[in-house]
């Protein structure tokens, strides 16, 4: 029995080196699956991070969104130049854990999530837990956690 290649691959992007390593691995899976594969890049803007900013307004949100869009445009182009036929991206707002583990994979029919391990600070890890750890435990799709490349 031959395993079917993953065809709907989700790669969360957060700007870290490990998420860029995950992008490269996601590209490899998409190329292995051929023209039927859809590579979906996702950035989740964690709105909780802005909850305590008194000056948070639409202008700041617009700037954050534009920065994320520019980064995803670049990553989409990297995937296309590598030969991936179908590459899309999404920008979502809310809890990264919930969006990556549940909401977006359900909407897209994702069968593989490829994400960086991330390096949260000790306090964040204690209070919130690792996004990668949560996703690996809670997602219905298969999850591959990619470590940051050795330096």
**Helix run count:** 5
What is the distance, rounded to the nearest whole angstrom, between the alpha carbons of the first and last residues?
Answer: 39 Å
Strand order of the largest sheet: 3-2-1-4-5
Shape: globular
User: Structural class, from helix and strand content?
Assistant: alpha/beta
| Major sheet summary line | 5 strands, parallel
pLDDT averaged over residues: 86
Provide the gyration radius in Å: 16 Å
Number of beta-strand segments: 5
Helix proportion of residues, in percent? 40-55%
Helix-strand string: EHEHEHEHHE
State which percent range the strand residues make up.
Answer: 15-25%
- Ranges where pLDDT stays below 50 over 5 or more residues in a row are none
Short overview:
The protein has 151 residues and is an alpha/beta fold. It has helices at residues 17-33, 58-82, 96-108, 122-127, 131-138, and strands at residues 8-12, 38-45, 86-93, 112-116, 142-146. Helix 3 (96-108) crosses helix 5.
């Amino acid at each position: 029995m031959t395993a079917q290649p993953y065809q709907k691959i989700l790669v969360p992007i957060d700007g870290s080196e490990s998420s860029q390593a995950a992008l490269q691995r996601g590209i490899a899976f998409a190329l292995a699956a051929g023209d039927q594969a859809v590579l979906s890049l996702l950035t989740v803007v964690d709105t909780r991070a802005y909850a305590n900013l008194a000056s948070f307004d639409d202008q700041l949100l617009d700037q954050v969104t534009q920065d994320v869009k520019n980064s995803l445009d670049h990553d989409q182009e990297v995937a296309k130049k590598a030969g991936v036929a179908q590459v899309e991206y999404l920008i979502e707002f809310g809890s990264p854990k919930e969006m990556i583990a549940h909401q977006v994979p359900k909407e897209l029919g994702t069968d593989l999530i490829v994400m960086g391990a991330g390096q949260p600070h000790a306090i964040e890890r204690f209070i919130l837990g690792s996004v990668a750890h949560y996703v690996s435990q809670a997602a219905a799709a298969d999850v591959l956690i990619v470590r940051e490349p050795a330096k």
